[in-house]
Amino acid sequence: MIEIIDCSKSYENIVLNNVSLKIKDKSFIILKGLSGVGKSTLLNIIAGIVKPDSGIVKVNNIEITELSDSALAKFRNANISYIRQTQGLVHWLNIRDNLELPFYIDAQDMEKSAIKKMIDSISEQFGITNILKKYPEKISGGQYQRAAIASSIIKSQNIILADEPTNNLDKNNIKILMDIFKKYKSKKTIIIVSHIDIFDELADEILLIENGKIQNV
Ligand SMILES: Nc1ncnc2c1ncn2[C@@H]1O[C@H](COP(=O)(O)OP(=O)(O)OP(=O)(O)O)[C@@H](O)[C@H]1O
Ligand SMILES: [Mg+2]
User: Is 32 in the pocket of ligand 1 (CB under 6 A)?
Assistant: First the structure.
């Protein structure tokens, strides 16, 4: 369960104005709203990347607004897959190493062979098997986007946040992504920011941010 309780966040203007929201485990949520209303800010707050000015955020019953930065980083790595709007692959690592990276962020006893298996399987799903040895600047924009999304979800945490994941993807790649989200539906909590309506059919709830408030549509 994700609970946002009386949260406010302002930059130059008020972005979120005393909002409360509960998101049940394994629900599929679409977040909509015009550019600049605070969609990415809300995802960042759920991921603990941005702290609200006031209010409480609980994820899986842990009050993340109270955690130290290092505890938060650990928490995020264990619980949250975040597909950011500005995607990031590490440019000095090849694609395979980028996919391995999430497994080394906190030391855990996962067998190398098991990690390799997961990388091979997700690479196949995303059609990036043939570029695993390449470096990010040597691949196409679509391949980059797919590799970045693969690296975000490879650990398959229980909460997937995706900020405009279809940006720059062609029809074929949107279909690949759609199939992946379909596979995870009802198994994980999924929150997607999307301007296009393609994911609406999968949604348990569609939320709209407007004037600092969040409403069901
Ligand atoms: N780090 C920041 N510093 C200052 N202002 C910020 C910061 N992050 C966001 N904002 C402002 O907060 C508001 C909400 O930004 P946010 O990125 O959440 O919008 P959004 O709904 O995701 O928009 P888009 O659809 O364009 O991605 C905007 O007015 C933005 O300029
Ligand atoms: Mg945004």
Answer: no
**pLDDT value of residue 102:** 84
- pTM, two decimals, is 0.90
Q: Is the CB of 11 under 6 A from ligand 1?
A: yes
- Domains of the chain in sequence order: 2-216 (3.40.50.300)
CA distances from 215 to 22, 49, 53 (A): 12, 23, 21
Could you tell me which of 57, 18, 56, 22 has the C-alpha nearest to residue 38? 18
Section 99-111 average pLDDT: 78
Residue matched to tokens 């539906």: 185
**Hey, which residues does 30 pair with through a beta bridge?**
192, 206
Distance 99 CA to ligand 2 centre (A): 24
Q: Is the CB of 10 under 6 A from ligand 1?
A: no
Provide the pLDDT for residue 177: 85
Token pair, residue 102, equals 């999430």
pLDDT tens sequence across 167-200: 878 888 888 888 889 989 999 999 999 988 989 9
